Amino acid sequence: MAGMVSTAPASTYDWSIPPGPETCVGVLAGGENGLHLTTENRTGKFDYHTDIVCGTADIAVAHPLKGMLGPKTIKQVLKVCKIGEVCIIKGMMKGISHDIYFWTRVESVTAVPPVHERTTVYSLICTPKQGSLKILTAPNPKALHAFWGSRANLDFGWSLFIEDFIMDSATNKTGTYWRGIISGPQRTPRFPQVYVPTTEWDCKPDDVV
Hints:
The chain is mainly β. The strands form 3 sheets. Strands 3-2-1-4-5 form a 5-stranded antiparallel sheet, with helices on one face.
């Protein structure tokens, strides 16, 4: 969990490791005492980068140690992204052990727009078929979404709101894809601009659109 830096023995840390560039996607959690991105509700296969690096790193804390970000960053992040929203954080991150990370600079914060702000092309809503699914960032089976990892296991509480129908290329060598917004139970969390193979979802007319 985030915030482990202040509780573990100082001798277990390697402060000599320099910060490096990082981009993380997750649900913003915490409050005025500190912020982090959580991946606790992610149903995909365990991924070290997503679940440990991005999923435990402190974005900022109320009482920062050397090199950590503080209250000013908390306020700046909360102006863009609310608690419970899916956010994309880009900046510099430092790791001082195999499972303890924190941001040293936040260069950009992007809040993922909610489902009701979507512009829908197709009046369809889809539910996942049983089994593991591919969630992609492009119409290519190798373009795996960072939040979900290699395969996602979604139950029927998740939905896909269709925005477009995509073929990967003129020759359509890897199949056909839906592009749209994946929404969790009770419409949260939400992930826009994802691509999924059409064969892995059942679709029907969406009267909400």
